[in-house]
């Protein structure tokens, strides 16, 4: 079991001994806060939403490996943007799964606004994420309407109080599920004087009742070119009063350093060497299939490879285990239509953790797109285990029964419309 006491952000006694690293793998955001202006190239600012660069999941793992060699005593690795981890769910989930494999002893944590968190909590728990921070700025939709310009949920943009209600509903139900999974929950509240300072104690009462472990009150940091640029930063006296009030309901956090999305080093004392290193890894060319352990199969029943990719409405997912091959789950494929976008969605979302795909047949467009995303395609018919031997044991293809699939044949160009 991991030692939760070595998390420097959650334990004040650990902050001068153990380092943390934020991996900036999540550039997109699903809400627009009136106090946030995300810039990737400002190395002199230390605040959430700022990063000097953005890394792919594989680049992030290589970067962390290099940092680990610098003896920084890293105990914790997190994802905090520069956007929101769950506006970038594929990148986020792939990163935490790679981290679990490559750094099993490290604590994994995430910081999110919570809007799109709920559907991914099971995956986070399976990957071993131990700490999640949720930014909740009010329980009142009218207050939230003043703090957010818009919220994008299920591909639709909402504004005003409706946006606030949707955001709040997703946040509160996420707390309950996170706690049910045994994950430590911290609540962040950005205090904007005259906007939500009167709501802070109410947040503490409600979130504590739902099981949240600690709460962190952050004073507004006025940022240029934002709606709240001219608001004043709350005084130390006001912040002290608010922390005193919430302490009656939930454990307050007192040592937050308001970290960047690419922070690395001790809390409040980031490593200058890490800041210089990270830019090198943002241009690192990596094999997109690296670190992926699973294989997708186009099959009718889960025993044979016997479907053309275009007619597969689900893919069977397998991985290698100590005792042979292990069936993981089935995953629905993107609906027919959309041309290349269907295959991009398949490669970048459905099969994001797969190194290979076994199919009875495939068009040239999906073949190209899967290859470009690091997914090896094997066309065959016969037992799934034979194809898995080719992937995991490097068996030559001549030992397989190659497909002479004729339903689409050479006429298939992978338009994404599915097989007729």
Outline the secondary-structure elements.
Blueprint: E1 19-22, E2 31-33, H1 57-68, E3 74-79, H2 89-102, E4 107-112, H3 121-127, E5 129-135, H4 141-147, E6 148-153, E7 156-158, H5 160-180, E8 184-191, H6 200-209, E9 214-219, H7 236-246, E10 251-252, E11 264-266, E12 269-270, H8 272-281, E13 294-297, E14 304-305, E15 314-321, E16 324-332, H9 340-350, E17 354-359, H10 364-372, E18 376-379, E19 382-383, H11 384-392
Parallel strand pairs: 1-3, 3-4, 4-5, 5-8, 8-9, 9-10, 13-17, 17-18
Antiparallel strand pairs: 1-11, 2-6, 6-7, 11-12, 13-15, 14-19, 15-16
Could you characterize the architecture of this molecule?
This protein has 2 domains: 4-281, TIM Barrel (Alpha-Beta Barrel), CATH 3.20.20.70; 294-411, Dinitrogenase iron-molybdenum cofactor biosynthesis domain (Nucleotidyltransferase, domain 5), CATH 3.30.420. It contains 11 helices and 19 strands. It has helices spanning 57-68, 89-102, 121-127, 141-147, 160-180, 200-209, 236-246, 272-281, 340-350, 364-372, 384-392, and strands at residues 19-22, 31-33, 74-79, 107-112, 129-135, 148-153, 156-158, 184-191, 214-219, 251-252, 264-266, 269-270, 294-297, 304-305, 314-321, 324-332, 354-359, 376-379, 382-383. The strands form 4 sheets. Strands 10-9-8-5-4-3-1-11-12 form a 9-stranded mixed β-sheet. The longest helix is centred in the middle third of the chain and has 21 residues, at 160-180. The protein starts with 18 loop residues before the first strand and ends in a 28-residue tail after the last helix. The model is unreliable at 40-46 and 398-407 (pLDDT under 50).
